[in-house]
Amino acid sequence: MTTPEERYRALHETIKFLKELTADPEATKNIKNAAIWLLRHYPSKSELDALALACPRLLSTGDMDQLYKMILEKDIKNE
To answer: How distant, in Å, are the alpha carbons of 14, 27, 28, 48, 75 from that of 59?
Structure first.
């Protein structure tokens, strides 16, 4: 079962993924245009935060789970 924290994180990470696609030199023009269109209509971080406040059962900005924190720390060290 997906937790509200996981759902919020997935939505937030999708923004980063779409931005990466728009800058990827290997992505086709169609892929880049689709990513740009999706980003134009995708909720901003402040909108996601407002949704989380309004619907905490569905979205939550709560603390990241321990495994995700470890993954982020490992990625930062490897950069």
So the answer is: 15, 31, 33, 8, 25
